[in-house]
């Protein structure tokens, strides 16, 4: 449920609609931060949310260059390097020299990292299924279509 903003007549104008979207995004982003924090802690109590994001990226892509992970997550390479060091220390990820580019490092999940990530990811996916359980397939397709449209880049 959205709360009207002072001065917003709720008249369905473009501006009032954009304000509604902005408010809902704020709520969604705050929830996403909480979820990533909780997921990171479920993988390992010392793991930070960025570490969980790295694990998720590696889970989706498989082994890839550390620079590609930094670019995908839009984080500073030095910050990513510190995060990967933590993941290595926790036994969740490993890096090795890229044989095709001696300057680059390849990252991948360890077997332990994969098992821990899959357990948490499965629970997270189950919660999402519960939240969307009362939605019709048409509503889900529409949400997916609208999110895809929003995420398209020029």
Can you put this structure into words, describing what you see?
The chain is mostly helical and 154 residues long. It has helices at residues 14-43, 49-61, 66-73, 77-89, 111-131, 137-151, and strands at residues 64-65, 93-98, 101-109. It has one domain (14-133): Orthogonal Bundle (Arc Repressor Mutant, subunit A), CATH 1.10.10.10. The protein has a three-stranded antiparallel beta sheet with strand order 1-3-2. The longest helix has 30 residues, at 14-43. The protein is globular.
List the strand order in the largest sheet: 1-3-2
| Structural category | mainly alpha
Please report the first level of CATH classification, the CATH class.
Mainly Alpha
**How many helices?**
6
Number of strands: 3
Radius of gyration: 19 Å
Give a brief outline of the structure.
The chain is mainly α and 154 residues long.
Topology:
Blueprint: H1 14-43, H2 49-61, E1 64-65, H3 66-73, H4 77-89, E2 93-98, E3 101-109, H5 111-131, H6 137-151
Antiparallel strand pairs: 1-3, 2-3
List keywords for this structure.
154 residues; mainly alpha; Arc Repressor Mutant, subunit A; three-stranded antiparallel beta sheet; 3 strands
């Amino acid at each position: 449920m959205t709360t009207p903003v002072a001065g917003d007549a709720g008249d369905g104008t473009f501006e009032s609609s954009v304000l509604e979207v902005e408010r809902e995004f704020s709520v969604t982003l705050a929830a996403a931060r909480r979820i990533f924090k909780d997921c990171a802690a479920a993988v390992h109590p010392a793991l930070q949310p960025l570490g969980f994001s790295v694990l998720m990226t590696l889970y989706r892509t498989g082994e890839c260059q550390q620079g590609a992970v930094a670019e995908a997550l839009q984080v500073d390479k030095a910050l990513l390097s510190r995060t990967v060091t933590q993941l290595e220390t926790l036994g969740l990820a490993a890096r090795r020299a890229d044989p095709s580019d001696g300057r680059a490092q390849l990252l991948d999940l360890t077997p332990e990292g994969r098992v821990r990530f899959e357990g948490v990811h499965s629970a997270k996916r189950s919660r999402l299924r519960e939240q969307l359980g009362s939605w019709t397939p048409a509503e889900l397709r529409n949400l997916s279509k609208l999110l895809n449209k929003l995420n398209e880049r020029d």
